[in-house]
Structure formats: structure tokens, C-alpha cells
Specification:
By secondary structure, this protein is an all-alpha fold. The chain has one domain. It contains 14 helices and no strands. Helix 11 packs across helix 12. About 45% of the residues are buried.
């Protein structure tokens, strides 16, 4: 049956407000009682999160205790702050996992306006460090990290509400390009090229998963490539990083200082590592070993075996996140879950790849492991939303009028079928 007929038989699907109310009626809250909270959670994902957080705290302490000693601080100074952020993150994850993700709709506009204002405030109020202005409140908050998650949430709701018009240029691609342009423009002024590229990538990904036309997606790729090339060409930082990356591909000895020290750590670690706490490179010039370089410390202290295990955990997170997206009760849940999952794993892959010169240098944190409050709390918030989607997907029934066929198996099993418009039935191939 075509989508037009489906919509005609489901009046609640015409009005998004009625659809959300109908969803609440058809999906009553699960019974309360001891253990009821965990009944619908994706337990493999919970275990993966717990292992990454626990291992992260261990490695943050291992990578930072000598810094505290050298600077006459408590050896557990950085660990204590990280543990505090983990506690805050866990509270937010628990809270958001209990809130129906459909309820965020009324706050999306205020959220994106607030993020843009914070990004602009960074340019005015932030102190410049290493040639960039990226933080507020004395370095405690990095709005560009919040902007990544805000982009996923806002565009997921926006694309969901516009799914019938997504392939009309004036209603789909053009407004989305304006939204992304404003956010990415504010970030690139800091400058933060890696965050800018991540935000644009996430926007294009969500447009693809929502059923965007391949011609428009191709146009986006070409435009992004041209703009990215211009940004790198005009940015001294961008030019130097690309030049160091290309030199490192020819000879690791010509890579950037940061990459050279990271590769040295991996070589020292061998297959099985030097043992937790025994890294020599962290005291021998490896920059910020408890944040951007923590994977190099992992490689040195646990060896190739431990580094591969960490990579495996992120691949397991990718697997569980996409499984949750595939079982989500509506297209909104699919977009949110897939966007969150791919964002987190992409950040992890970039962080690990940069340290072995697979990618040009970028300042991405290793999610759930690197020290730092902004990235950790933002990722934990995202995982709370993902856990709620898993709970909704495990409830009986599917939200009426949710346009399930708009994204079938996250688009890769339906051969890129387009979203049907109101004036033409959906084709079934």
C-alpha cells in the first residue's frame, strides 16, 4: 500500500503533535518495581559503556599521575576531576534514558539558538590558547563539543518533520544548508577545523539516512569538498597539518612532533605493553597524554593487544547503536540513534587514526576515555538518549503514522529508496 493511502488511513500522522500524543497513548509506561528500569535497556550497550568508563579512569590516572607529582599537585588531581565528570555524566545518562525522546521536540529551537549564542560568546569572551578560542568559564565548557550533539538532535527533528518535502530543494537541502552553515561558520571562526568538518559530515549523514535524493547528496559532497579545500588553504593551521601529514606518509620521521612521540609509544609497547603505569613516553615529550594522546599511552602500556581491544569496544558500540537504530519505533528514533552512534565512533576512529598518521592531525578526544568534561558529559547525554530509544524500541507496537518506510534498515538494505511525497505513491522494488 502506498504511503499516501497509509497517511489517509492514519489521520494522527498528518499532525506531528497528534502523532506524538498518540505514541504516548499506544506505548504506556512499563510497570514500576525493582529492576523494572533495566528491563528494556540494551544491556550489551550498558556493559560496553561501563567497561570504557572504568578503563578510561584507569588510563587517565596512569597517564596523569606523574604530571601531578612534577607540578606539586596530588597525583590523583586529574583523576579526581575526571571521576567527578563521570559522576555527572552517569546522572544525566540515567535521567535522559527515562525521558521519551519525542519530548525534546519543543526545546530544539531554543537549544540550537543557545548553542549558536555560546559559540559566538566564545569568540568574544574566551582566552586564546594555542592560537584558538574554544572554551568558556575558564576552560570548563567547550561549546563546539555541545554543537555536535545539538546538530544531531536538531536536524533529526527537522528532517523528521520535513520528510515529505525533503527532496524539494527549497524545503529540504537549502534550509538544511543554512542551518549547518550558521553552526559550522561559528565553529570555524574559533578556529576548530576538525569540529567544523564533523558537524558538516553529521548533517550530510542525517540527510542521507532521512532519504535525501542522491543527486542532492552528490551536490553536497562536491560543495563540502570545495569549501573544505578553501578553508584548509586559507588557514595556516590547516596547511601545516596537511603538510605534516603528507610528509609523515612518506617518512614517519618527518611527521609532526606529536605523531612522532605517539608512534614511539606504540613501538615501545610492542604486542603486550610495558604494563599499566609504566609508560616512558608520557614523561618524555608526549603532548597532553591524558587527553588527545591517551590512546598512545594505552598502546604503550597494554600493547597492540590492548589497543586492539579498545578498538573492538568501539566497534561493539557501533554494532549496538545501529541495532538500536534499526529497531527504533519511528524515523525520528532511527535518525537520532544512527547519528549519535556514528558520531561517537567516528570521533574514536579519528582520535586513534591521527596518532598513527592515518589522518591529518585533529584535536578529537577519545570518547569515554580521554580526560575532559565537555566531551565526556556530551557523549554521556547522547548515550542516555540512545538508551531511551532502545527502551522505546523494545516496547510493544510501533508508533502509528511514523512513516517506517522512510528509512528501511537505515537505508543500506532498501537500495536507497526515496521518501515518498504526498502526491505520489511509494514504489516497491
Amino acid at each position: 500500500m502506498g504511503e499516501q493511502s497509509f497517511l489517509n488511513q492514519n489521520p494522527a500522522s498528518v499532525d506531528p503533535n497528534r502523532r506524538f500524543r498518540k505514541a504516548s497513548q499506544d506505548n504506556p509506561a512499563p510497570p514500576s518495581g525493582p529492576g523494572s528500569y533495566f528491563m528494556d535497556l540494551d544491556m550489551p550497550l550498558v556493559i560496553i559503556i561501563a567497561v570504557l568508563l572504568t578503563f578510561g579512569l584507569l588510563m587517565v590516572y596512569s597517564a596523569s599521575w606523574s604530571f601531578g607529582v612534577v607540578n606539586n599537585l596530588d597525583p590523583s588531581y586529574i583523576l579526581t576531576h575526571q571521576a567527578l565528570w563521570v559522576g555527572v555524566g552517569l546522572i544525566l545518562t540515567f535521567t535522559l534514558s527515562r525521558i521519551d525522546y519525542h519530548r525534546y521536540r519543543r526545546f530544539t529551537v531554543l537549544m540550537i539558538i543557545g548553542i549558536i549564542l555560546m559559540l559566538l560568546a566564545v569568540l568574544v569572551l574566551s582566552n586564546t590558547r594555542f592560537g584558538a578560542s574554544r572554551t568558556l568559564f575558564g576552560g570548563s565548557v567547550q561549546p563546539s563539543e555541545l554543537a555536535k550533539l545539538a546538530t544531531i538532535i536538531y536536524l533529526s527533528f527537522w528532517l523528521f518533520s520535513k520528510h515529505d518535502q525533503i527532496n524539494e530543494f527549497s524545503f529540504g537541502l537549502l534550509p538544511m544548508a543554512v542551518i549547518l552553515g550558521v553552526i559550522a561558520g561559528c565553529v570555524v571562526l574559533q578556529p576548530d577545523l576538525s569540529a567544523t568538518i564533523t558537524i558538516v559530515f553529521l548533517g550530510g549523514l542525517l540527510f542521507f539516512l532521512a532519504g535525501g535524493d542522491y543527486k542532492q547528496i552528490g551536490l553536497v559532497i562536491v560543495v563540502v569538498f570545495i569549501i573544505g579545500w578553501i578553508m584548509i588553504t586559507l588557514s595556516e593551521t590547516g596547511r601545516s597539518r596537511v603538510a605534516a601529514y603528507l610528509s609523515g606518509l612518506q617518512d614517519p620521521n618527518n611527521a609532526s612532533y606529536h605523531v612522532q612521540r605517539a608512534i614511539e609509544a606504540f613501538v615501545r609497547g610492542g604486542w603486550f605493553g610495558s604494563g599499566i603505569g609504566n609508560s616512558a613516553t608520557k614523561n618524555n615529550g608526549l603532548p597532553v597524554p591524558w587527553t588527545d594522546s591517551i590512546f598512545a599511552v594505552i598502546g604503550e602500556e597494554t600493547g597492540a593487544v590492548g589497543a586492539t581491544a579498545v578498538l573492538g569496544l568501539y566497534m561493539a558500540l557501533l554494532w549496538r547503536g545501529l541495532a538500536i537504530a534499526n529497531k527504533a519505533p519511528d524515523m525520528l528514533g532511527k535518525l537520532l540513534a544512527s547519528g549519535i552512534t556514528i558520531w561517537i565512533t567516528t570521533e574514536a576512529v579519528i582520535n586513534m587514526g591521527v596518532l598513527v598518521n592515518l589522518f591529518p592531525f585533529a584535536g578529537n578526544a577519545l570518547p569515554l576515555i580521554s580526560a575532559g568534561g565537555s566531551n565526556l558529559v556530551t557523549v554521556m547525554v547522547a548515550l542516555g538518549i540512545l538508551l531511551n530509544i532502545s527502551k522505546q524500541g523494545n516496547k510493544k507496537g510501533v508508533i502509528p503514522g511514523s512513516n517506517q518506510n522512510a528509512v528501511v534498515d537505515l537505508r543500506w538494505r532498501d537500495r536507497g529508496r526515496r521518501v515518498s511525497r504526498p502526491n505520489r505513491p511509494e514504489s516497491h522494488l
